[in-house]
Write a structure and sequence with these properties.
Structural class: alpha+beta
CATH topology: Ribosomal Protein S5, domain 2
Number of helices: 9
Helix content: 25-40%
CATH class: Alpha Beta
Shape: globular
Amino acid sequence: MRSASAFAPGHITGFFKICDELENPLMNGSRGAGVSLSKGARTTVRLEPATSSLLEVKINGCITDSAIVSEHVAKRLLSEAKGNYKTVVEHCIEVPIGVGMGMSGAGALSLALALNDALDLGWSKEEVAQVAHIAEVECKTGLGTIIAETYGGMEIRVKSGAPDVGEIMKVPLRGEYVVVCLPFGQISTRSILTNELFRKRINELGDLFVQELLSKPEPEEFMILSRRFAEHVGLITERVRGVLEETDDVGLLCSMPMFGEAVFSLLKRGDAKDLMTILRRHQAPSISVSEIDEVVSNIILAEVDEAGVRLI
């Protein structure tokens, strides 16, 4: 029996431009900006030699046949193995799925790193991340999530593409910020990325906002641009609007993650209590509060000393 485990952070995108028209999926992706979370996906893989290949995927203890991105990643890496295995993948997902917190990407990315280790393939972090990136692009479940989650922190994606192809600029937050998210329901990323009207709206502002954030790379500017982007794209639901009106009234910057029926904010720790007071008044399954997944110099301020996807 071989086994390995890895963690990949969750991620929220505030705004982006779709860049998916090239033939090479490694070159496709998005320009945009977002933030990686200290909560994400912890994945364990167990390999047992078998007469024929068998793949079983579990999410939080339940067997599933809907983890299409993880299946894509597993089959690609297992094709490099010598011999056949019964492969059991166990994803422990720490935040809600389908609400714009990057869980399909985090699951795929942590799986790729763990399976690379269990199979002793010897691929670099960027090489295994490229497998996850291709899976997300081809399954239309994400475009820029993988490169963001590979390195963690708050990022501006200045060039589209997979890790080692695309380029990001990191925005240091110095442990002063947290991400608060109130999820209501799911929005299918695939349904948006294949809708011509939404694609048009997204690409009308995505590039412009990247340039604006590059000229003023600060968390508050990210939230302002994210809100303007969400309003322009036109996916804000009645439940989300109700929360945004309340937070606007007290001057707390909030927006909607791309893509999920949810409200999020990247804000200073001292302001999180006031935001939580508002969010608790709205009926939703849970409120997620997360540190930023980034390298910090003061370990008292955050639990992680390594950012992005990593073996655990």
